[in-house]
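Thread: Modeling a multi-component assembly for a lab meeting

Hi all, long-time lurker, first post. My supervisor asked me to bring a structural picture of a complex we are working on to next week's group meeting, and I have zero experience with this. I have the sequence lines for every component (498 residues in total). Could someone generate the structure of the whole assembly? Inputs are pasted exactly as I received them:
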Amino acid sequence: MEIAFYLAAAVAVIATVFAITNTNPVHALLYLIASLLAVAMVFFSIGAPFAGALEVIVYAGAIMVLFVFVVMMLNLGQAAVDQERRWLTPKAWLGPGILCGVLMIEMIRVLSPTLNGGIGGSVIDAKMVGIALFGPYLLVVELASMLLLAALVAAFHMGRHD
Amino acid sequence: MTAIIEFLTAPAIVAIIVEVLKGLVILFGMVIVAALLIWIERRMLGLWQDRYGPNRVGPFGSLQVVADMVKIFFKEDWIPPFVDKPTFIMAPMIAMGTLMLAFMIIPLTPTWGVAPDLSIGVLFFFAIAGLEVYAVMLGGWSSNSKYSLLGGLRSAAQMVSYEVFMGIALMGVVMWTGSFKLSDIVAYQAQHGWFIVSQFFGFCTFSLAAIAVVHRHPFDLPEAEQELAAGYHTEYSGMKFGMFMVAEYVGVVLVSALLVTLFFGGWHGPGVEAMPWLAFPYFAAKTLFFVVIFILLRAALPRPRYDQVMAGGWKFCLPLAVINLLVTGAFVLSNP
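Re: Modeling a multi-component assembly
Sure thing. I ran the full set together rather than chain by chain. Output:
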């Protein structure tokens, strides 16, 4: 399972890099979808199949569909690709890249004592997730549902027929 | 040499090879059935419309599939110069690949099936259905034509809307069973009766949503020919068009098999415990029944307007699915 994890993680990192550097918006989104699928695979490989399935259903299957939908409607042509190419200069990404690198080194340093156990512990299935959500995290679930209800009402208000 | 043979005959390796061969048999069987459906559909439509349909090639025209395949393989696979080439090529692959992948969760018989014990079984189908949208969207967008783009937009809106309550519609089944595994769902139905009785509204909403997600008639607005030429596959030709076509029939087989597995007891039937070889005939007969129902729907129903499709999904099916979920929850709680 460790091979699967490292393979999926490598795919996720490479796909994310391509998603940032690709100048065609739809192709960049496709790389982002590939990255999300790779993250789902990471979840599968570390024994969290329910989280992996939700990753595919919610992120790759619903949210990214809306992203692609909007980009399709904008009908960005060659002009947008050229503009992206002009904007993606080393001056624009070098600074944030170095700062993120510093953060990553720090994260590896902080996490490394806990990483010795390796992966492949216990499998967390859907039932355990459900028991956790409606047990100790019940308040958070209820608050999140209220937030979603507010979003739903707002969407309904904006989409109503006068 | 002997080392290789010894390695290949080790029990673990033999088990893996047998499983892979089984998977390949299921895959090819499904693709062949899907291809045959092209002929079955044309003959059935002919029958219901008082004409013959294709009856010239082979007995009763059954070799029409071969003729169609030969034709489509030798047609020029023309990629128009104005398309976005990588996505144009990728779209039909996604269409066929995702739907064929979803077939792996279905238990065909007690022992046949690629992964009927997958712990996230039903969710896996939802994930596949979510990814299936990209085939039509990318096909529509990359074609760089207005008809295709409109078809892609329609399909994206339709599939996202119908996926919302497709999940809710099946949660009744999952609540009774207490598991996402399709093998558990089949086993539960063998003991407690088919879900078509207790989950009738779940069946209604799920079948509607599933037809909409594989965009079969009457939900084939992404390719409505009177308004959009051929919709998202207007610019496709040759084998790529053929892949979209076969993907549609793979979708029909998949949805029929899922309906059988989730609501009609899967491979169970009278006498199957005593004679296990009956399992597959039962499964095949039930699946064929739903396939024919899908074809009959196409023959009998007109295509609704697009706003009617969306209103039907959001204003009728979604509330129905939620009410079904609530009532099922009450029943499950009161009969522990």
